[in-house]
Amino acid sequence: MSIDPQLTAKLTDAGEQELLNYLQSADPQVAAQLSAQLAAVDLEEIAATLAKKRKAAAGPLEMTSPPAIRLDDVAPRINEAEAIAAGEQLLSAGKVAALLVAGGQGTRLGFDHPKGMFPIGPVTDRTLFQIFVEKLIARGNRYNAAIPLYLMTSPATHDETVECFAANDNFGLPDSQLKIFCQGTMPAIDAASGKLLLAKPDQLALSPDGHGGTLAALVNSGCLADMQSRGLEEVYYFQVDNPLADVCEPLFLGYHHLSGSEMSTQVVAKQRPEEKVGVLVEVDGRLRLVEYSELSEELAAERDASGSLKYWAGNIAIHGLNVDFLSRMAADAESLPWHLASKKVPYCTFQGEQVDPQAPNGVKFERFIFDLLPHAKNAIVVEILPSTTFAPVKNADGAASDTPSAARAALTAFYGKWLMEAGVSVESGVPVEISPLFALDSEELKSKAEGMSPIVEPTVFGDSSE
User: Fold this and answer.
1) Residue 58 pLDDT class (50, 70, 90 cuts)
2) Does pLDDT of 435 surpass 90?
3) Residue 190, strand partner residues
4) Cβ distance 271 to 159 under 8 Å?
5) Of residues 143, 133, 170, the one with CA closest to residue 435
6) Which tens digits make up the pLDDT trace of 132-148?
7) What value does the CA radius of gyration of the chain take, rounded to a whole number of Å?
8) HSE-up of 67 (CA within 13 Å, CB side)?
9) Is the pLDDT of residue 56 over 60?
10) CA dihedral in degrees (84, 85, 90, 92; nearest 10)?
């Protein structure tokens, strides 16, 4: 088959002669499909990224604790009541959106669907998607303002996610408040040769471009322009695996807004040096995230004068983002660098043989949203209690942590505390669940709890069919 001269030159310049020979001798339909994919790949960007990483020298970082609002602050920089009022004002004025990153499949959970479809309600088996949407609807109802949801999928989860929302009438969210968009992909390359890999005879081996791909996807899908046309100012960013995420809570939004921060991050305090969690630190006057793999054992164990861990601020992937900041960063091609990850990448040889490697053989390219932090003005971290805001669902039951059973127990404990505060006793070990549409917080529950009987069997407030 005759290959487009521009593509021929592109592959030749990139040293992909073997791939070019394959294209020229392949079945015309195979060659046409693969050529269309290759035309969209920026091979110069891949080469430049590899060259930059080879030259990069990772010197020691001069790190300090980040600017933070902590739970035990004696004299906090911002009064809590003022922060709540500021957040509520933003919500009432319709200036807030939610951004849910939901590109992951439930592979590690043994669940062959988008992770957002995973049933996690302790009593009702409400899915992660339903829980989040109900929180958003309840928040909008309280402040009498629409809160749009921008939901980012990946190629692996997009169609099924769209079908799930359509089949469930968006879980009650109006169509006008829902924008589902798909993140981009990057080709995987062979670790030894740096050459492109095929997934099938007519397909490149592609993978999602990381949660940092959110920025480009917001632009390419028109969602960033949609945010601007709606007059939105702040975005509550969160990931799909955390059912305790307190979506668009006014306190966090208020701290973010009153600090003049362009990007704020919720964190939990690390309890042990060996915890495998990235930490927020300040480097050269800028907030940034340092992955746990970048911290030596000595640095991870370093303590301050009070005996607490010096690098304590554990990342939980909840951010406040200013819309103008996102727009500015979208125009800066260097704002989000590529990271390289060594992975096992199944591939197809030019002879048509499918290979399932037993050890890492490839390199994937990913961008991370937290790389925006050093660019953000007045960036801060806000500490929260894991028991109120963080119960990730990552691993199948039987794993050491982050399991569905642990998340359901955390949800039961969370709602059980609300009930106890409202004067309703809950028998130990009995699962309880409260729909956000019934009560968005403990104060709202108190107004409805009068006369409730002690809870001695699995109980739900706010039926999932409502």
Assistant:
1) low
2) yes
3) 362
4) no
5) 133
6) 999 999 999 999 999 99
7) 24
8) 21
9) no
10) 110
